Amino acid sequence: MLKFLDGNSKNIFKKIEDISTQRKRLQENKSSISKQIVIQVRKNKDKAIIKFEKKFNKLAKINKKDLIFSNKEIKEIINSLDKKTKKSIDIAYQRLKKFHLFQRLKGFKLKDNLNNILEYKNSPIDSVGIYVPGGTANYPSSVLMSCIPAIVAGVKKIYMTTPALVNKPNPAVIYAARKCGIKEIYKVGGAQAVAGLAYGTSIIKKVDKIVGPGNAFVVSAKKEVFGDVGIDMIAGPSEVTVVADKYSNPEWIAADLIAQAEHDKFSQSILISDDIKLIKKINIIIRNQLLNLPKKEIASYSLKRFGYTLFVKNYSQILKIINSIAPEHLELNLRKPNKILNGVKNAGSIFIGKLSPEAIGDYIAGPNHILPTTSSAKFSSGLSVFDFIKRHSLIKISKTGIERLGPSVINLARYENLEGHARSVEMRLNKYKGNK
Length: 436
Prior knowledge:
Layout: E1 3-6, H1 12-26, H2 31-44, H3 46-57, H4 71-79, H5 83-101, E2 108-111, E3 117-124, E4 127-131, H6 140-153, E5 157-161, H7 171-179, E6 184-186, H8 190-199, E7 209-211, H9 216-225, E8 230-231, E9 239-244, H10 250-261, E10 268-273, H11 276-290, H12 296-306, E11 308-311, H13 315-325, E12 329-333, H14 338-341, E13 349-352, H15 358-363, E14 389-396, H16 399-415, H17 419-431
Parallel strand pairs: 1-11, 4-5, 4-7, 5-6, 7-8, 9-10, 9-12, 10-11, 12-13
Antiparallel strand pairs: 2-3, 3-14
Helix pairs in contact: 2-3, 2-8, 2-9, 4-7, 5-6, 5-7, 6-7, 8-9, 10-11, 10-12, 16-17
């Protein structure tokens, strides 16, 4: 089922890179299509959105009012959701909010030895658009993970869009949206939804930042609108790397690998172990566990096409491989996880010990599950309150400050051939008549 790689071989890092590159290339590039959609929506607004929704959903007729959920619809959809699921969403909401509250940034203010006042101040983004995929990835957990850090940051206007003109709306997604106080919910999907949020229409509100997962069209559209609006990240299909030893429960490990694979056929599950017997046993167990899995086809494709095992003899090499992969999710299913943990530099979210499956992080643990993928954990982090806060520098220079610091600024400005900069400071040194 899972390809076997010798993690001790000299060219192992090249093999890992080749597999990663191949996975990226096999995900169809939709940038040219998405670009044209974005251009048309920016120019023709609702008319273009209706055009593309009709085209991709094969609908004969759509009116503007069809693009947004009415309050009556929302109420009826939520009433259809069972109490057990509502309670689970409520618990997840409270846990996630409690964790994210600890991420709130505090500004600071100081006065230096020249009586200059220097300050660092925070303020929330004004408006945010949440994209929630349709189809197999229509999850209430994605709504909570996208919205809660924005709520904690102080964002006042949050809007959501999800493909719902043909597919029946997911009641749990709508309930989660209402739980988060989302202002409006649109029924639009794909690149046209991203463009609508980026530039605004008579129906869709223009926002300052767009967050949330999506397919290749959505990802390409987010790239296209970046700069006009902010985006969270360019995320690919989900992935997990599990490190196990002879003390690990092979049934549990197999289940964890399958759990990640059922997300998407391009998802990736990697097993690293210093026990060759465990690797072989897990491969057999995976086949058995897949037999009665509802998403067997998706998980099987993912595991066969992109999954692999690495037999690695020592922890030093394991660490090098982990930091090279830079996994979105890392499970340290080990008897002594701290032997590995302290050396991990590149990972989105780390699950420590045998009772910490990645699946619990997807829903209710507390930290965010929107994480960097395809090795981007080498330079980025998961979604957090920080992503919805702007930082401002406040500078007030004193008379002593301009007198003492001014000459150095003039020297540096002229060194860089920026005479205008030099004169701006020089005039104040020569003509200063103000007060402190």
